[in-house]
Structures are given as structure tokens and as C-alpha cells.
Amino acid sequence: MRPSSIEQSILYPIANPGSIAFFGASNNISAMGTTILRCILSMGHKGSMKYQGEIYPVHPREETVQGIKAFQNVADLPVIPDLAFIVLPTTIVAETLDACGQRGIRHAVIVSAGFNEVGGEGKDLQEELTAVAEKHGIRYLGPNCIGVINTQMNLNATFLPYEADRGFIGMASQSGSFITQISPHLSRQGMGFSTGFSIGNEASIDIVDCMEYLGACPRTRVIALYIESIRRGRAFIDAARAIVPEKPIVAFYVGGSDEGRRAGFSHTGALAGPDSLYDGVFRQSGVIRATSIEELFDFCYCLGASPPVRGNRVIVQTHSGGPGAAAADACGRSGLTLPNLSPATLESLKPYVPHTGSVANPVDLTFTKNPLDFFQAIPQILMSDENADGLLVYFLATARMIEVALKAMGVPDDETGKKAEEIIGLQADAIAALKEHSCKPIVGYSFLARKESSLIRGLQDRGVPVLPSPERGARAMGALVKYKNLKGKLTTE
Amino acid sequence: MRPSSIEQSILYPIANPGSIAFFGASNNISAMGTTILRCILSMGHKGSMKYQGEIYPVHPREETVQGIKAFQNVADLPVIPDLAFIVLPTTIVAETLDACGQRGIRHAVIVSAGFNEVGGEGKDLQEELTAVAEKHGIRYLGPNCIGVINTQMNLNATFLPYEADRGFIGMASQSGSFITQISPHLSRQGMGFSTGFSIGNEASIDIVDCMEYLGACPRTRVIALYIESIRRGRAFIDAARAIVPEKPIVAFYVGGSDEGRRAGFSHTGALAGPDSLYDGVFRQSGVIRATSIEELFDFCYCLGASPPVRGNRVIVQTHSGGPGAAAADACGRSGLTLPNLSPATLESLKPYVPHTGSVANPVDLTFTKNPLDFFQAIPQILMSDENADGLLVYFLATARMIEVALKAMGVPDDETGKKAEEIIGLQADAIAALKEHSCKPIVGYSFLARKESSLIRGLQDRGVPVLPSPERGARAMGALVKYKNLKGKLTTE
Q: Does A91 reach chain B within 8 Å, measured CB to CB?
């Protein structure tokens, strides 16, 4: 029953609700439900954009909740809301869901915990939930989840502010933390979610359903999965194989070690399998496996930002030997090769490279020539080399170098800062245009962060991914090649 | 000829010069020499501390250089400087060094490139340099290096500003970049260099000499090495084995892949060997190998900040399942185990953990109890467990949670911010004191950065290392255990 369009997905009303019945918010601001409601109301999206749907708090006693008219019972609501959002004590969740069903609601998010993941009586309570949901034909996220983010809707139905931009990463996570607590990390690289689902115990909607939704979502260019265990192995493989030819899927799986397995079990009650089993599933599925949460997002970032790569031959451009060598070594360990430059490329480079530089690959320009060539003439020459499938570029503290160059050219001191920023904007334009026209991936790396460098920010804002170290840049470039190979295998099988 | 004290080291006058003769600076601000001189003059250390030694620019024509009286010839200098710093065109370096020798100078840093690393004539020029140095008994760093940083002296003799604090990491690097360009990265975690040497082509002073200096340096708690190749294998092993029982050494080696080896060769002309060879050397030496530049500094950071660990049994404390499971899995992959909590610990924890939490290890507190217990009562109980050799703690957006708790307690809105900061300071104090008194390592991890969170900053400033992801925290904890094992092996052999 794969949805043929995103609107047909059982997750559509959950990620795009026009109206929400909210259970568990009050005027006690330290309650979890209140916190989530306040996030929906005030922190829809960075830059104070707000969720535009209707919200109907349901509360047994309060007239208003956080300034919004409240209703004593869901039966009293003036409309049938698209979604019930439930943050209530464990024992009253089932009866609340039943009341929602009677009112005609067919979709829910159940944040409340204390079900399967705690065992014993919690299992009985989850079974009761399932029975109620089936009776009414309700599909729901959770229980024991943390909510949903849809940046396009300005909907942040979680308990922490979303601090990143709108992005192209669609995520389904068996931990709410990687939906709610990761936005500072995403923001630091200029990344962001299109949509994020915290899926909790997966009693009704599971990771496969989320993959299918994200596969159909036009704003999602790449799918990120955090997995402690896959419950429907066959369905996972089928769904992934249908999606991967269109968009990449990256998974971070933590159940592969004894320690990870035990931790996952006490987290969501899921039983994990050994690494080898999951490696097999991912290989069959065409899913790229990441080895850490940072790598998960590094890979997604570069996959979503890059055109398809044609092969594994990478040119490393640097003006510092160490970051070049470290990138080269990491390329070697990530399935990439560094081809020799073609004779035509060597000839074209001659005017630009000083005698202390190197035109081997890595192309190490050192520092003695015009810093501006670094962004225009040189990468253009390198990218037109027939041996180059992609470019990995090290970016240094350019603003300062350009300012010094301007001062040396006689530009008055009080104008160099502004002039340098203009030049940096043009350089970032040049790199972004080169990526566009060459149809080859460019991945940057730098020890400078977005907040510290207008060049890094400028590149990232123009769609050129820049990662914080040579190894992370190289591995992400390796993931592009992995995706090419996985996709190729799936489509020729 | 190992130095018995740091003052006897041939590197002492290079890292602690009372006076410097500077060659290659001028009033052209875009020249590399000028840039370095300006770094010495204006950017000795973050917070505008300045190098206090004497500087004697030598320039054939200028009366003053960057506002300092210049001398036409080194022979004219009023004193014999401790150090000659040379940033001149390749072909005049040897004659300049000769003039320095005649004036009685016995130590130099040669930044100029174009020697062995470019092959051909460059090799001849480097041989000439060696002959001149030997004639006068001069020892020097370089050529093809980028200089030296000694934060204690407020000496930043490199071409970029040093943007981190004084720290305990002593580094010797076969790439200048990892001395000059890494400070934004160090700063982001509250790390810093004690001393950093860029060693270039190692014509006179090599990585072994630097290790010996750093081994004797009282402000260096851990030694970081960036290696493209080791020239004196036996001496390296001997030096490391003498140091490791006293302080840890971490090495990042990039020559192990074909791509890394080729890149290193064109960078400094060094011939690298396969991974297996270097793994053997590091094992024999008691040196911990890092697999990336980030890991090099992560390991150094935690090794330098932590008391010796007694075993590999780690308790993971979290209030979010995913970051706990990811840390647990990474622990399992880093040689660590997660012991069960003892019955006494379980009993003591009872009042603090809600029913949705877990007292398995990871200890997952979830969110429903008093957030302040997270920093005092709970870690204290965990650290006194006889099964715990160390604690790995996940830190979330605490400031906001504390503010909400304060508001709920009736603290007026305009006072919650200040009050929350006070509480955070006390919490950071509590964690730091616990680390101190328990004599067991505590490593934190968080997706929040120092600049975004006063808790993270507070912890780091009090000597509690906090890393940016669960895996990096776990791997660094693993490095502590690796060090214990390597040291144990060396001292019992």
C-alpha cells in the first residue's frame, strides 16, 4: 500500500495538519505538554514564522490554555481536527484516543511514555492503545515519541526550539533527541530539516511508513534514519529499494555492539541485531550506513547538496600541505582515488602555481600567488580535467588575506573590510556557479565555522557544502560515490 | 643526548627566545615575513597579551620595519639574539644563516620553502644549509616550516593570529597548518596549545627533538603529533617510551594509504610507510594513534584534562535515549564496557529516577524530575559505584530548562535569566568538584557548543572536557583506557 502521492500518505495529516487537538498542555509552564504547545505557538521556525493552523487545547478545567480558548472535551470541538496531539499521563492515553476516535479524528501523535519500553504493565497499556486505534481506524506516531517538525509548515511540535533553517534533510528517528536536540548542530553547517519524525515505539506508524512519506516529499532531497532496530525487515528493504533510485537514504544504526543493543532495548524495547545482519539489510536496500551521528548528517548534507557523481576520481585543491595530505589519506580510506592531472590541466595551471606549490594531486598552491585565483581560475581549470569526477577544496581564513592584499594595493584602511566582503561574495558566487555548470560535486572543508567566516557562510548559503575537517569532507565525498554505486546496483539488478 | 631539563633542550631558545633577529619582514604588508612579524608584534596571545622579548628586524634598505628600528646587517646588531627567524627567498637563506653564525647566533627558524620538498636544485640548497649550520653549530627548525607558538611567552611566530586560549597541548607537526590554522577549532572546545612547533623538512631539528622538549615542558600535559613520516624510527621509539610513563602522546599519521603517502611526499619530501609498519612503531612506543585531525585533538583534550583511569568500565548518564544509545554503541566499539549498576547504587538512585527512566546503564533519566539533580546527586551516586571507572555524560539545553523551572516556582520573569546563570555556575562547579574528588574521569558530550551554552562553557572552563557528539565522547574515553594499557605495558616490560 505504498502511497502514490504525498497527500495519500498516512503521515500527511501528521506532518501537515490544518488543525490540532492538543491534550496535556495547561497553564503550568513546566509541564511537558505545555512546553510542546509553546513550541508550536512561538517557535514554528527560526525568524519567527508561525504555524498557521488551528489549535484546540483540550483541558478538563482551564478556560484558556496559553492564551488559547480551551475545550473541556474533544467532543465539544467545533470541527474535526486533522490531528490529535497527546501528552497525557500513561494511564489515560487510551481513553483519550478513544474519545478522539469517537469525534472522528483519524490521526494522532502520542508523546506519552511508559508503554512497551518499560515492559510489564506498559505492554498491556500499549496493546490497549492498539485495540482502540484499530477500532477507529486511527494511525498514530508513538507512543514514547517526541513529535514532528515540518519546516515548510512552520510546525515545530516538539519540546525544544528548532534553531536551524529550512533544509532538505527528511529524517525519521527512533530517538526523539535527534529530531529535537540536533538543530544547533545542523545550524552550525547551514543544514536543516525538511521534515523530522520522532517515531518512538512504532506501535502504529513505523520507520518504513516515514521513509515512504519522505520518499514522496518534494522538499526532501535525502533521507536520514536513526535506527536502533528494524521491525519490518522485508518492508524496509522494499521501501528503500523503491526510493533509492530517486533519492539517497543514509542510516545510522547503533544496535551493532553489545552495549548499543542493550541501550536500544531499554530505550524503546526494540531488539537489535548484529552489525553483519544490518550491513546485509542496508546493502540489499541500497542504504548508505553512517558510523556516527555527525557522519549521518555530513553524508546527508553533501548528498542533498551535490549533483550525481560519475566516478571516484577526486582532485584535492589546497593551499596548505597538511590539510591536503589528510584529505588525500581519508580519500584513500573512503574508496576514492586521486588521479594525476591531465597534461592540458598542467599546462593551464602554469601561470597560477608558484614554484613552492605542487601540481601533483593534491594541488597545493601554497600562499604566494593572488588569493583570488583560488576561487575562480584554478578550480575551473581543475574541474574541466577529464580525469576529475569531483573537487575537494580546503578553505582558509580568506577574509583576512584579502584585506591584507587590498591594503597592499592601496585601498584605504576603512574601506578594506567592506571591499573584502564584496570580494568574498563574488568568490562564493564563482564556486557555486562552477558547481552548477560543471555538474560535478564540490565539497569544501575548513577549520573555520560559518559564524567565524563570511566565506564559509557564503558558500554554504549558496549550496556548496563545507564540512569542518579534511576527513569529514573526504568521507562525505566517499558517500556520494557509495550512493552512485548502490543506485547503479539496484537499477541493474 | 636527551635533555635532563627543558632549559638544556636545543629547542629552548627557539620556543623561549629573549630576543629575535628577524629576516624577511618589510613595510610591504602582503609579504609573508611581514605577516609573521606582525603576528609576533600584535597577536602574541588572545586578550592582547604581547611578546615581551626584543625584536631586531634586519633589512638591507629600510630604516624601520613595522615601526621597529631595523638593521642593515646582522653583524650590526647590538646583542647576539637568541634566535634568527628567516623568511627570505630560497637562494639567499644559506648566506643569511652563515652571517647569523658569524654573529654568534646558534638557533634559527627557517620558514623559507623551495628545498628538499621540491627536489632537484632544492636538495642542493638544503645540503648547503646543513653545511653552513654545522660549521657554526646552529640548530634550526625547518626549512619549509611555518614557525612556533608558545602561549606562555605570548609568542605567536606564525602567519595567522592564534585564536585559542593558553592550553596544555604541546604539538609537533609536519604540517604548519595544524599549528597555524587549527586555533579556531581548538577555541571552539576551550582547548589550547602550550607550545606548537611546525617542523617542516626537519633538516636540523626533527619530531623526536620536539617530543623531548615537550616531554620536559611543565606546561604540556599531553603531546600531539601530526606525522607524514618518521625519519629516525629508533630514536622516535626511545623518546616516546621515555615520555609515555609521564605523559600521553597521541599521533595522527596520514601516510598509510597510497593517496596519503603520495600527498605527504610532495608536501615535505618524506617517504611514508604502510599503516601496519606505523601501527607497530606506535604500539612499541606507547603512542596512541588517532584516525583524524579532530580525533587527535579530542584525545589530547580528554587525556590532558582527566585523572588516570583505572579500568574500562564506563557509566553513561543521559536524559535522552538516543544520545545514550549512540554513546553506548561507540563505547562498545572503543574497548569500553558498560557495567551494571551495583545494588547500593540502584537503591540510592530510587528517589531521583522517574518511572519512564531507566537505571540500566546508560542511566536514562528522561525529563520528568528536578533538572538540578542531574549535576549533583545523580552523578555523585554513579561515580561512587565500585563498578564505575569513569562517567560519560550527555548535556542538554539546561539554561532554558532551569529558566522554565524557575518561572514555574514563581521567580519573576526579569530575574530568571540571571538566576539561571547562577545555578548553571553552581552545577558546573558540582561536576568539576566531583571529577576532582572522585579521581575518576568525567567526559561530557553535547550538541550545544561553548558559544551557545553557558553550561558547556562553564564545564570546559572548569576543566571538564565536553565533546560535540556521543561517539567523539566515547572514543575519547576509550583513549584514556588505551593510555592506561599502553603505559602499563611499557612500565612492566
A: no
